Amino acid sequence: MAKRLHPRSAVAQRTAGITLDHAAPVYDWLAPLMTLGSEHRLHKQVVARLALDRPADVLDIGCGTGTLTRQIYDALPADAPRRVCGVDAAEAMIAVAQKKAGARPGLAFAAALAEELPYPDGSFDRVLSTFFFHHLNYELKVKSLAEIARVLRPGGQAAILDVDVPYSFFGQICAWSGFWLFHQAEIAENIRGKLRAALDESPWRGRWQIASRHSGYLSLFTMVKPQEKQP
Ligand SMILES: C[S@@+](CC[C@H](N)C(=O)[O-])C[C@H]1O[C@@H](n2cnc3c(N)ncnc32)[C@H](O)[C@@H]1O
């Protein structure tokens, strides 16, 4: 595995994903800047897409400081028990998320890898990730997509918001600026359509769609796990 410039926590050291222990103290300041002020609007799109008006067990992968994870918890009906989990490989991110969570019974964060989710098969109704897949190389994208399929219940839904093939000049500039700024090959992969290719190489082949496009370079991918066939 390539030597990293930044210190990485023990869990983060087990993945080739780009982990952000070092950014945890400033992430909540930086994220709105890096999305040109649209982070909140984009998160709202994901929440709307997940149809959280009825009780559901939800998993947020690569949750960072847990801003969206908390929003999802708050969107679920308050008159039923709630179970919302957030995982991130960076233990420092999880520490911030846990601190921010406050008194929300059923909201839990864990330091864990997307490619080896620590949950049994079929344990969630919804799985989501935002701004996470451009932190994974191609192999980890495919593995993580398979893990999403595994932990979802039949009929469960997944939503992924991430960098994708740009569809406008403005989007080209934003997406390639991100690549040049961070020197992150994984961003270039997404721009070149590798997330779509990974979906096609995963259990989601033929089962994913692009529900909406944003900011010239982001896509909201949605998937539904098929119901089990009755004997
Ligand atoms: C850009 S942040 C996104 C945070 C949050 N989802 C958001 O929308 O703001 C990407 C996160 O992915 C995490 N990450 C990278 N590789 C990972 C892996 N293999 N498993 C779990 N998390 C990982 C990083 O530590 C980082 O916190």
- Tell me how many strands there are: 7
Q: Name the CATH superfamily classification.
A: Vaccinia Virus protein VP39
Span between termini:
46 Å
Strand content: 15-25%
Instruction: Compute the number of structural domains.
Output: 1
CATH architectural arrangement: 3-Layer(aba) Sandwich
Radius of gyration: 17 Å
Average pLDDT score: 93
Ligand types: S-adenosylmethionine
CATH class: Alpha Beta
Report what the structure shows.
By secondary structure, this protein is an alpha/beta fold. Helix content is 35%, strand content 21%. Strands 3-2-1-4-5-7-6 form a seven-stranded mixed β-sheet, with helices on both faces. The longest helix is centred in the middle third of the chain and has 14 residues, at 138-151. S-adenosylmethionine (SAM) binds at residues 15, 17-20, 31, 62-64, 68, 88-90, 93, 113-115, 130-132, 135, 140. S-adenosylmethionine binds next to loops.
Question: How are the SSEs ordered, and which strands pair?
Answer:
Blueprint: H1 27-34, H2 39-49, E1 57-61, H3 67-75, E2 83-88, H4 91-101, E3 107-111, E4 124-130, H5 138-151, E5 152-163, H6 169-182, H7 185-191, H8 194-201, E6 208-214, E7 218-224
Parallel strand pairs: 1-2, 1-4, 2-3, 4-5
Antiparallel strand pairs: 5-7, 6-7
Bound molecules: S-adenosylmethionine (SAM).
Residues 15, 17-20, 31, 62-64, 68, 88-90, 93, 113-115, 130-132, 135, 140 line the site of S-adenosylmethionine.
